[in-house]
Please model this.
Amino acid sequence: MEENNVKEELLKDKIFSCFSNSLNEPNRQQTFLGQLSDLIYRWCKGFLNFNVNDMGLEIFNIVKRILKEDSNANIPKTRDDFIKYLLIALKTGKTEYKRNYESKNKDNVVRMQESYLGRKLSEDEKDNVLTIWFEHEVAEGPNIDLLINSNIAIIYEAVKTALEKKQDRSRDCYRALFTLHCIENKHTEGLFSILDQDIITSFQKDDKKPMQYEIWQKYHPNALKSSSEVQASKNLNDFLRDLEKYLKEKNPEIFH
Model:
């Protein structure tokens, strides 16, 4: 795990160096466009768990915007701030990609269900099918993910408050699901004390982490795997929405 962190930091250094060089040689933008795209693709694929094959166009367009002379004046020029800026841009691109993907695929989901049943679905049935599909496919709160790295103190308080509002019997399950979400999206720094310590310890020691359905089954032993996957995803989404609602109420300025 430590070796991977070192490799990632070295790659971030190369990304920032390439960007800095592009500022000093504006007549070589096409060269830097290719170099920076390649480095960022490697970062996304190797460390951010992005589907580079599917998101290639979105990533390329982000790099083009970063290198555009009339827009890069507002881009941070220090290494750490630039990497934070880039990460937010990439996650915004990922959110846009997923939104477009969902829009294109929801019609296919309905058609597949109608084909299976051999009849047209009612509007209520369509809503139910799509609700289940979205809950199963989308387990991220994009606004939270965009904010979490640069607003740790605010996020910490929001998570703490959201967990305290949960019933005692469900609080640990929400905590565990959120912990897995943080690990998968590299958001654990600054949040360790309110995350599930068993999951964190196991991941730090052996790089092992549970699946969402395994977390759900731990707290709901009689649940089947299929229903556990859907319920775990739904509950994580509900928790992320709670965080987003709390943040918008208490700190609306960070959403602008």
The chain has three domains: 2-92, 99-137, 142-255. Residues 79-117 form the longest helix (39 residues). The CA atoms of residues 160 and 194 lie 7 Å apart. The mean pLDDT is 80.
